[in-house]
Design goal:
By secondary structure, the chain is α+β, with helices and mostly antiparallel strands. The chain is 24% helix and 22% strand. The strands form three sheets. The protein has an eleven-stranded antiparallel β-sheet, sandwiched between helices.
Length: 357
């Protein structure tokens, strides 16, 4: 992997990740951009004890542009974009409309491919491995910033999820605090350790799922994907490395080598689970793509027991059947009590049925 760091016209950082060591990245950003002005603020909820980012400047962010005006495509034929080069492998840059900025953290955009019409599932194993390298490198770099407490790499896909740019891309949030979801995991981790005389909760969850077998979706030598026993979403899969590590930087070479094959197969199964159509005519390519969120859970940077935390990826869709979405209604949004219409065992069986031939 070759890494090239440069700056956009407004001073934001842009990083190219290339598979070839002899790739030269010399193009400059020729757009007449004003300096980025953000108003990001972290406010703490006194009742719930969590944090909310207030970011009013995001009201003006780019919203569903036509494909020929996509800001994440390479700069070609005189059309200037966020990426000055005419081509790229993987590109990462500071978000122009960040939810977190300055002392409140940092937000970055990760462009997986220059192909506007592709998706992560369309990548080759080598391309997926390069994205993993980029996630890992950014996790290491962002973890060194004094204001950053946790690094979150994720992908939102699909208009149903709320994606405003159709180009295949993900994001990285570097939070100035440990997120509420992770805090709850750490609390459960400590309680389990106390109750079992030192056993690790993540290790036990993975061992129990592998022993039961009913919710396993696929396994490799170094990774296991399963639908959790108490899945919140209709189709939700957790992907764990067999060897517990706290974050992406700690994965060994064997796990890194196997990851692309496992993850690409998992994403392709997600695209097949609703492939029978919705009864309203021929399916379009976009309709065949299941909307999802893919979220890497990593240990907080300076947590006292970070070595006990287990890196894992959670992949889920809000689609429950063809043409029908799982909306967060009163119980979920008002009280954070999820109601799942699809039994986890049935979801796992469906995801096994659509395995690649």
């Amino acid at each position: 992997m070759k890494k090239t760091t440069t700056r956009l016209a407004d001073g934001r950082e842009l990083i190219y990740y290339d598979s070839r060591d002899d790739t030269a990245r010399t193009a400059t950003d020729r757009r007449p951009l004003d300096p980025v002005s953000t108003a990001s603020e972290i406010r703490h909820d006194r009742l719930l004890g969590d944090a909310v980012a207030i970011a009013s400047h995001r009201q003006g962010r780019t919203y569903h542009p036509p494909a020929d005006q996509c800001p994440l495509c390479p700069t070609r034929e005189g059309r200037l974009t966020e990426i000055p080069e005419a081509d790229y492998d993987v590109a990462v840059f500071e978000n122009r409309f960040p939810s977190l900025a300055g002392d409140s953290g940092r937000c970055e955009v990760v462009c997986f491919t220059p192909d506007h019409d592709a998706s992560f599932a369309d990548l080759t194993p080598a391309q997926a491995a390069l994205v993993l390298d980029a996630w890992t490198d950014r996790t290491a770099a962002l973890s060194q910033l004094p204001q950053v407490a946790q690094v979150f790499c994720f992908e939102n896909r699909g208009a149903e999820i709320g994606v405003t740019l159709g180009h295949p891309h993900g994001q990285i949030y570097a939070y100035p605090f440990t997120t509420p979801r992770t805090e709850r995991m750490l609390t459960s981790l400590a309680a389990h350790r106390e109750a079992t005389g030192g056993r690790n909760l993540f290790d036990d969850v993975l061992a129990d799922e592998r022993a039961a077998g009913r919710r396993i979706v696929l396994e490799g030598d170094h990774w296991t994907a399963f639908v959790p026993y108490a899945a919140h979403w209709p189709y939700e899969v957790h992907l764990y490395p067999r060897r517990r590590v706290p974050d992406l930087t700690a994965l060994d070479d064997a796990a890194r080598t196997e990851f692309p094959q496992i993850y690409l197969e998992l994403l392709r199964r997600f695209d097949r689970i609703f492939d029978e159509g919705d009864g309203r005519g021929p399916r379009t390519p976009d309709a065949a793509r299941t909307p999802y969120i893919a979220a890497w859970h990593q240990a907080p940077v300076r947590a006292a027991d970070r070595a006990e935390f287990a890196l894992h990826l959670e992949l889920f869709t809000i689609r429950r059947t063809p043409g029908k979405l799982k909306f967060l209604a009163g119980s979920e949004s008002g009280m954070n009590v999820f109601i799942n219409d699809v039994p986890p065992e049935a979801a796992a069986e469906r995801l096994r049925e659509v395995a690649s031939k």
